[in-house]
C-alpha cells in the first residue's frame, strides 16, 4: 500500500519559519532544520546579534537562511514580515510557533498589563501567524503548523497561572485548528515540553534545580536538542497522520 504524504517536495526543499529562534529551543529547532539543507527563516524581536549567530551556524550546515525581525503581537508587523518573505520568494511550508515569554508569581500580584503581555506573545501570536501563513499551505495541500507549548498548559503550574492559561489556550487552539485544516493536507500539533535546560531556568538556584531533577523520573532536565528532534519529526511529510496532538516530552514528570 502506498502512503500519500501530500507534498511533492522533499523536506530539504521546504521553507521553515521558526519564531523566537535567536536562542534556546527556537535556535536549536532552526539548527535541526538547517541540518537537512532547508530554507530556514529565523525570526527574532530584538536579539539581532544572537539571531545572526544562529544564522551563521545554520549556513555552515549548508542551509539557505534569512533572519527577520517582527513584533508578533502586531498583525501589521506580521503582514510586513510575510510581504518581505514573499519578496525573497519564500512561503513557509512549515511554521513553528516557538516565540514565548514566561511569567512567575502569585495570581493576586498579576497586573492586567502583565496578563495582556503574556497572552499576546504566547497565544495571540499563534493565531496571527497561523492566519497569515496557512492559506499558502492550504493552497498547495500540504503544510505543518507546530506550536511550542508547555507542560503547564496541560497540568497547570502553581505561581504560573497566567503562563499556564496562555499555553492551555495554545493547546486548545492546536486541537481545533487541526480539525479545520485536516482536509487540506495541513497538520497542526503542539509540543509541550517539561523542564528544559535553557535560560528560562535561570530563576532556579542549584538546590531548586537538584530538587526538580529528583522529581522527574528520568532524573534530569531535557536538552533543547531533544525538543527540536520531536518538532522535526512532526514536520516530516511522512508524519501526515499525526494531527491535533499535544505531545509532551517531559521525562515522565506528567503522564
Automatic annotation (TrEMBL):
Pfam families: adh_short_C2 (PF13561). InterPro entries: NAD(P)-bd_dom_sf, Sc_DH/Rdtase_CS, SDR, SDR_fam. SUPFAM superfamilies: NAD(P)-binding Rossmann-fold domains. PANTHER family: 3-OXOACYL-(ACYL-CARRIER-PROTEIN) REDUCTASE (PTHR42879), 3-OXOACYL-[ACYL-CARRIER-PROTEIN] REDUCTASE FABG (PTHR42879:SF2). Belongs to the short-chain dehydrogenases/reductases (SDR) family. This is 3-oxoacyl-ACP reductase. It comes from Paenibacillus aceti.
